[in-house]
Amino acid sequence: MRLNTISGRFAALTIIFVMLAELFILLPALASFRLGYLESRLERAQIASLALLATDESLASDLESELLQNAGVFNVVLRRDDIRQLVLASSMPGPVAATFDLREDGVLQTIDDAVVALLDDQNRVIRVIGSPVNQAGQLIEITMPTAPLRSAMVEYGLRLLALSAAFSILTAVLLNIAAQRLILVPIRRVISHMTAYAGAPEDPLSIISPNARLAELRDAETALEAMQKTVTSSLKQKDRMAQLGQAVAKISHDLRNILTTAQIFADRLEDSADPKVRRAAPKLVNSITRAVNLCETTLAFGKAEEPAPTLSRFPLAPLVAELIEAEALAAEAAGRVEFLADVPASLTIRADRDQLYRVLSNLSRNARQAIEGSGQPGAVEIGAGETDQGWWIRVADSGPGLPDKAREFLFKPFTGSARKGGTGLGLTIAADLVRGHGGRLELVRSDAEGSEFMIHLPRDLGTIPSRHATAAR
């Protein structure tokens, strides 16, 4: 049993605490033993005195020495009928060092006298006063040496300590066995589960199943189970994301080729004789160009992070008008969504035009789909303005508002979707693109009257990489 283990330290602490408890018991026990020893000497002296008084005077001198020796005292004094009588006497090796009246001593005084007697290794003469047994007088007084008393106390104390040590060891062994079965075995089980889970964290069968009887260990196993389930779910999601990323890269490669071909044909529509076709051709070309750029970005970076924005100054109103026209065309079938713009014609902002279009497109599309899903008519409004610190763009709708789950996991992919079948990627992409501009996207409100998102773009370019910031100056 090693001290650097729980069982070893538990056993050592048990022995130490039991021994400390026995030490607190030892002092009262020694005091009681000393009191009993002195009382026994008084009884022996009383018996010797009565034996001498019952004999003839001629025999008294012969018995006196033997009676004192057997009683372990130097002399005996009895008081009877208010008369103090020296019954037995012999020569003493020295003066009386202290007097102890057993009729008056309290508990604390008795303990203090016992400690003094134990620590004093000199053989001294003491006087002890007590009450005779069986009412054989008023008091009895003896003188006696302290050396035999101290020897008896030391012997008794050593026996008591030895018994305490044996009891401590036995208690430690029993408690250690109990700790092994009740605590250490369940802990080792948890450790073995953690080791097995570390070897295969994606395997649901390696997740611990709480079954400990102790409430604390069961709580620990429950917390471990919840953590393992979260980690396993995250690993599975990351694995799916990696597979999805590979699939998106492949699709983007082929889609880029298809869109490039479509872009070539769209360019030729500008030469059409139909005026409506000529007016629609530039918008079609712009849409296809953005799609091609998005595919190329996916292939170039191949990771979850969006590329840093290429900043430039441009008027915001035309971009919002283009966006609203595209969303209005998508909403024509339902005929329930109205698009409103509140953007000053003179407002010029600094941003990546294509990325900002993607942000507004995701927000307005989510708003339109929320209104269409409610089955009630509604409106989507895009407003903008500027302050000394930067620009703000507001996208609000009169839809049913976001559900609780969507608000809880807002801006998280695959968890924050507000509609059935949605992926939640729209808000995640929008938030990432706005952060790339050094700004922030926040949900201002979402209730029964609709939702409102606010985009904040800073004037300060300190949070934008310098090579992109230079292009916007």
Explain how this protein is built.
By secondary structure, the protein is an alpha+beta fold. The protein folds into three domains: 6-173, no CATH class; 205-250; 305-471, Histidine kinase-like ATPase, C-terminal domain (Heat Shock Protein 90, 2-Layer Sandwich), CATH 3.30.565.10. The protein is built from eleven helices and twelve strands. The protein has helices at 6-53, 57-71, 107-119, 147-199, 215-268, 275-301, 316-331, 353-374, 404-408, 425-436, 466-471, and strands at residues 75-80, 83-88, 96-101, 125-130, 139-145, 312-315, 337-342, 348-351, 378-386, 390-397, 440-447, 450-458. Helix 1 packs antiparallel against helix 2, helix 7 (316-331) packs parallel to helix 8 (353-374) and helix 8 packs antiparallel against helix 10 (425-436). The longest helix is centred in the middle third of the chain and has 54 residues, at 215-268. It is rod-shaped and about 160 Å long. It starts with 5 loop residues before the first helix and ends with a helix. The model is unreliable at 466-473 (pLDDT under 50).
